[in-house]
Design brief:
Layout (H helix, E strand, L loop, with lengths): L1 E2 L11 E2 L13 H11 L11 E4 L7 E2 L9 E3 L2 E2 L23 H5 E4 L3 H10 L8 E3 L10 H4 L1 H12 L3 E5 L8 H8 L4 E7 L4 H7 L6 H13 L4 E8 L8 H11 L4 E5 L5 H13 L4 H11 L17 H18 L26
Parallel strand pairs: 3-7, 5-8, 8-9, 9-10, 10-11, 11-12
Antiparallel strand pairs: 1-2, 4-5, 6-7
């Protein structure tokens, strides 16, 4: 395992645990490497892992989903890996399928699907395509920092607007407000829903929990901007972590409702595969006095299943503490003025299959 000895500013983890699919692993003392470079290259910035962007040569735009926790059959993921660096991210283990680590590699080696908009247009033109909701950010955030420069998510939304194919977006980035024009076009055909993920109202906690994601105030401002533009918007309190942010449920829901959110739901913390150990180290670094208590409650959350695949568990309440959290959330949601049935399901009624020569909308 490669690791820094101290937390890295701007990164969610300081570790690169061995890939569970690889039989051999190279151990690198990153702290020693930093010291060595400082000695030999005086004045050079310390070599904390800089983000690498690699071309993903995928030939398919749509990923088939078979997880019952996710409310759509097909998803689009413009990026593999995520520079937001959220320590809790359930998608970290997916990087191991690519030969990378679920730790630092996940947030510093990002695969970019440059051809995705063209592949999406081809998929939607196919006669075999049955119009239906496509999810964006089902794995990693489609509005992570590099999207500001590359614009792959925006170009995919332009394709979806061209076909009027419905899309459901989940993000924790204010960058979504850049695309109010395209989202507004989709909203005119009831073909979009947007959800902002909220974790905490405490900026200091967010800086260490999800270091490169938008801060709480800017996320709430994004909710307000979407609502004011007539774009259906709700929130996920995700993830709720016992002993870390679960006490904020009432305040988070009140803030979301005040910002114009139409619906709210929550997702409890999940710790699949390598995420469990990465999260345990994060607790040691930032909340050592709470570590054992937090992990015990997470086990209760998951009915002692904190490793491996947890398909179907994300919305299922297991254990005493999980039941308490569900009741607190439901009471707080009602008090904030949300209805449990207020979610806006995007519609495929206006779908149209464009021809090769048709002029695009944008």
């Amino acid at each position: 395992m490669s690791r820094f000895h101290e937390p890295i500013r701007g990164r969610g983890t300081r570790e690169s645990p061995p890939n569970r699919f690889e039989h051999q692993a190279l151990e690198i003392d990153l702290e020693a490497l930093r010291v060595a470079r400082t000695v030999h290259d005086e004045g050079e910035k310390e070599p904390d892992p800089h983000t690498r962007f690699l071309v993903d040569s995928t030939r398919s735009a749509l990923s088939k989903n078979d997880n019952p926790d996710v409310g759509f059959n097909f998803g689009i993921n413009p990026y593999r890996g995520c520079e937001h660096g959220c320590i809790y991210c359930y998608a970290r283990p997916t990087h191991e399928f690519l030969g990378f680590s679920a730790g630092l590699d996940f947030e510093s080696a990002i695969l970019v699907k440059t051809a995705l908009p063209d592949l999406l247009r081809k998929a939607l033109r196919a006669r075999s395509w049955q119009p239906q909701v496509i999810g964006m950010s089902g794995v990693t955030d489609c509005y992570q920092p590099v999207e500001r420069r590359l614009g792959i998510t925006r170009r995919c939304l332009e394709v979806l607007a061209e076909f009027r194919n419905p899309v459901a977006i989940v993000t924790k980035s204010r960058l979504i407000t850049r695309d109010l024009d395209v989202l507004g076009e989709l909203a005119r055909h009831d073909a979009v829903s947007t959800t902002l993920s909220l974790t905490s109202l405490d900026p200091d906690l967010c800086r260490i929990l999800e270091p490169r994601a938008s801060q709480p105030g800017t996320r709430l401002a994004a909710v307000r901007a979407l609502a004011d533009a007539g774009i259906p918007v709700g929130v996920y309190l995700a993830p709720l972590i016992p002993g870390i942010n679960d006490h904020e449920v009432p305040a988070l829901l009140e803030a979301a409702r005040d910002a114009g959110a139409r619906w709210a739901n929550y997702i409890p913390l999940s710790l699949p595969w390598a995420v469990k150990d990465l999260f345990a180290t994060w607790l040691e670094d930032h909340f050592p006095e709470r570590k054992e208590k937090v992990l015990r409650k997470v086990l209760d959350f998951r009915n002692s299943r904190s490793r491996g695949s947890q398909s179907g568990l994300k919305t299922r309440n297991l254990g005493v503490y999980a039941g308490q959290m569900r009741r607190i959330f439901e009471v707080s949601r009602r008090r904030a003025g949300f209805r449990s049935d207020e979610f806006c399901e995007p519609s495929a009624a206006s779908f149209r299959r464009t021809s090769e020569g048709q002029i695009e909308l944008f």
